[in-house]
Design goal:
Structural class: mainly beta
CATH class of the largest domain: Mainly Beta
CATH superfamily of the largest domain: Immunoglobulins
Number of strands: 39
Number of helices: 1
Strand content: 35-45%
Amino acid sequence: MIRYLIPFLFLGCTTEESTQEEILLPIMELSKKNIDFGDVEWGSTEAKILYVENQGELPMGLKPIVILDEGFEDNFSFSYDTETIQCISGYEESESEREPNLSEEEFILNPGCRLKIDILYSPASVGAAFAALEIESIIEDTEVFADTTPQFYRDPSDFKQLVFLEASSRQDVGNIFVTPRIVDFGHHWMSESDTRQIKLQNVGNGPLEVETPYIEDCDEAFSIDLALLDGDRTISAGDGSLFEVNFNPVDLETAYCTVIIPSNDPETSEIEVTLKGNAGIDPSNTAPSLQLISPAPGYIHNTDEDLVLELAMFDINQPADTLICRVRSMVLQGPGHICQAEDAGGYTRVSIPTENLTRGLDTLLVTVIDQSELQASASTSILYGDVHVDSDDDGDGFGDGIHDEFFDCDDTDPLIYPYAAEIPDGKDNDCDGGIDERTISSDDDGDSVSEEEGDCNDNDKNTYPGAPELPDLSDNDCDGIIDENTSLSDDDGDGFSELDNDCNDRDDSINPSAIEYCDNIDNNCNNLRDEQEEEGCIAIDSAPVIIGGIEMADRAIGAGESTTMTVFVYDAEGDELSFNWGEDPVMASLDHTAITAPTARTITWTAPELPSSLDGQLFKVIVEVTDENGNQDWVFGDIAVYSRPVTDSLVYETTTGSSCGGSTAAGVFLPLLSLAFLRRRRKNT
C-alpha cells in the first residue's frame, strides 16, 4: 500500500525548517494462511506451528485467538503462551504513566516480535475435517484517559485474518457390537433349563479379533458354551458370530453372572453382558391359589392322633410341588410347620403331631408363596382338648362375650374370627380392625394404589399406574410394557436400546447397525462421524459449510479503492456450488455498485465515495452458498471505508520557527474504526 503523508496545520508561528519521520503501524504477518495436516492415522495426533509476527514499528494489540470449527468440533485444538513471545529487534518501549487498556486475555505484540501458536489435530471423526483460526489485531481505546496517545495499535487494513485448517483421518479397525447386553432367563424352577444366544457383530470397517469370553462373579446355575465361536475368531467387517449361555437353577434364589467378551476394538476392548435368572418379580406371574379343604373352622380335636390338614394349592406359572408352604399357630404361638404338595397336582396332607399343639383355641394360618414372592393364604380354627364357649354363635370357636379372651368381631360368619386369613370381601376377616389388608383390595406397599385399582405389583412401592419407568426389568407404570423410555428399552423401534450402544434412541435411523452417511452424524454409533468404509460413507443431501467466514485481502480501504473477498466451502457430497454475493442496502442511497460479479466464489469489492460529512463508514457484505439440491449456508462480514486512502504509518513532523520560540513535534494518524464481525447463521432448505 502507498504511504500517504498526513498534512499538519500549525497555527501562530512560521515554519522555517521542518523534518518528517514515518513510523510504520503494525503489520500482522502470518507464517501460513493454510495448514494441511494431511491424512492422520486414527488415535494419533499431528502438530503444526503457526507464527504471528509484528513487522511494523509500533506495538500491536491482539484479541484472544479463537477457532471457528462449526461442524467439526473436537478435531482441532491450539495453544499459545504470551510469556514466550520471541523478539529479534531492539525495540524499546516508551515510558507511560498508565497501564495499557487491555481486556482479559488481550495482549501486546511489540515490533519485531512473534508469537508461536501450536495447533494439534487429533481425529475425533473419520473423514475430512476443517476449521479456521481467527486472529484479530486491535488499537487501544484511550477515550477514558487524559493521554489519548495509544500504547498499541492494529494493522490498519488487514487487522483480522483467517488461517484455514484442513485434515483427514481413516480408521480401518473392527468395532464390536454385542446383543443382548442383559440376558434375563426369567423364572425357572429346579430341574428346568434354558439356553440363550449372545450375538457378536463387527460394525467397523476392519477385522475384529475376538478373544475367549469368560465369566466372573458367577452363580453355579450359569455356564457358557463357545462351540459356535470356536475356530477362526477373526470377524470380517459386516460379519458376525455367536455363542450360547445356559441357565440350570439349583434352587429358586436369584442368580447373577457377568460374561466378559474381550476383543481388539480400540474403543471398547471389553464388553460386559449380565446374566440373570429368577430375579425380581415375574411380570407375567399371577399369585398362587390355596384351598383349605379340612378341617372346617371350629373343629374340635380331642384325640392323641395327629391333626391332619387337607390342602389344595395351584399356580399357573410353576408346579405346585415347587411352592413354599407354611402353617403357623397364630393365637397360641405354637411351632410352625413346613408343608409341600405331594405332587404337581397340588394336593397336600399336613400332619401335625399333638405334642406340637397347645391345648385351647387356636387359629392355624396356611400360606403358600411362589418364586416371585406372591402368596395366597387360608385358615381354620381348632379347639384342642377344649369346647366351644357359650357365646360362639357361628361355630368357629370364638365368641363375642365380654369375658371371652379372643373376641369374634362378627359372630354370625364362621369365616370371620381372630387371625383368620384375610380375603378381599370388604370385611375384617381377622378382626384386627383393618379391612382386606394384604389382599388385592388393599395397598400393601404404601404407594396408595391397590391391585384392584391397577397396581400390577403391590409388593413394590415403585410400581403403580403412572409411575416413572425405571431400567429395572419391571413394568413400573403398569402399562404392560417393560422399561420403555429407559436405557434398557428400544424406544425408536430400530432393535437397539441405549444399553445395546444405541447413541440416539429417539431416531430409528441411528443405531450400531445403521449405514454411515456423509452427514456429519455418527449414524452407526461407533463414536465416529462419516467414517470411510471401503467405498466411503454414503452421500446424502446435506448442506454446504462455509469455513471461518469471509476472507478479505483488506478489511479497511479508502473511498474508490478495491479489495478481493472469497469464501472457503466444504460440501460433503462434492456438489457443484453456486454463489450469490449481496450488497449493503446503503449502497442504493449512494448510487453505487460495489460488486460487479456477484455469482463468483471470489469477487472484487469496490468502495463508494463517501458523503463529505463522513470520515468513514462500515458496510456489510453477505454471501449465500447453495448446492445442487437447494441447501444453503450464508455468512455476513463488515468492511471499513474511509474518505481517503488508509495509511500504514504515522508521520511525525518537527518544525523550527522564530515566532514559535523553539521547535514543536506532533504526530497525527488516520482514525481507525472499530469493526464488528457478525457470526454467520445457517439455513437448510
